[in-house]
Design goal:
CATH architecture of the largest domain: 3-Layer(aba) Sandwich
CATH class of the largest domain: Alpha Beta
Radius of gyration: 21 Å
Enzyme class: transferase
EC number: 2.6.1.17
Number of helices: 14
CATH superfamily of the largest domain: Type I PLP-dependent aspartate aminotransferase-like (Major domain)
Number of strands: 13
Keywords: Aminotransferase, Transferase
Cofactor: pyridoxal 5'-phosphate
Order of helices and strands: HEHHEHEHEEHEHEHEHEHHHEHEEEH
Organism: Simplicispira hankyongi
Shape: globular
Structural class: alpha/beta
CATH topology of the largest domain: Aspartate Aminotransferase, domain 2
Strand content: 5-15%
Helix content: 25-40%
Length: 405
Amino acid sequence: MNPLLNRLQPYPFERLRQLFSEVVPPGHLPAISLGMGEPRHATPAFVTQALVAGLGGLSSYPATAGEPRLREAFTGWLARRYGLQLNPATQVLPVNGSREALFAFAQTVVDASRASPVVVCPNPFYQIYEGAALLAGATPWYAPSDPARNFAVDWDSVPDEVWQRTQLLYVCSPGNPTGAVMPLAEWEKLFALSDRHGFVIASDECYSEIYFRDTPPLGGLEAAARLGRTDFRNLMAFTSLSKRSNVPGLRSGFVAGDAALVKSFLLYRTYHGGAMSPPVQAASIAAWGDEAHVIENRALYRAKFAAVTPLLAPVLDVALPDAGFYLWARIPDALGLSDEAFARALLAQYNVTVLPGSYLAREAQGANPGAQRIRMALVAETAECVEAAQRIVQFIQSLPLQKTS
């Protein structure tokens, strides 16, 4: 067996299952889960219809590069969303969901024969980054987010000797779980570091279409273009239909950026068997070509967060994020509960599931930045999310406060 498999840590939801293994929730309260970030709004009917209409394509092998119409759908969306002009033949590539691609990309980019390769990622983070780094033969380095700066990642905390060994940097904007969006100045800093040390930047942007401000989140390719980096050198953006169009089961997304990286990734995926099926391609073309359903979806999240956040704010340190569909809340110290104990007791007493923040981070530089926090995914209908918030308020108000010296 590959010995690198032994370096992988249990996935957060496996840890959650173990945490809850002996919990018996109250039977009189219906279960409400805010634990998993799985979109639950309805899939648009036209996407389903396009999927069914494309079933005739099952009789042929699909090309790994995808149909020309699909790649043109990608570049058309990039032009409308970000004002970018990319070559559909050389600068975009379909992938079977951003998760699969984010993992596979590290296997393409990392050269394990070089001394002590490093993959830098934010902390807290999406655990795929860590697993991809480990199985590529690299060492992850965790850059902490700073609550005092709207959870911006403290890239300055990464030592220069780490940057010198870095081959790949994962960024996530809007961030999971914090919802923070990277500003242009932060992108400029990372591009300068990439130029100096030669590492590749993988920009995870799967939450880009769920936002709460008037201005859409800045994308990595958009930032590069604004800074005159129109060749997108050493930059690849990853996006997905899962959150944008409520089709997590479709497993459809694309990557875009540096043509040289796209070429190498296509070579890897040709051997890896990463081709997208014809029906999924047909459904994806339909989804990327329509914006009305995305606007409706965003409005649902905005209404939901507007209803839930004020309910929780009096009892938790929580605020409306820049984007995404998570609330990243700090548990009051006066409750005397760890994030694990809080999640376990909440399920046991009120049948609401939340994810302990420490499961989404690693202890690094002397601290786990997810400790004493919980992630709440507001993916259910508004009424269910409001009910969950009300139960959380009742739960916290029922707890005795700890005496402080």
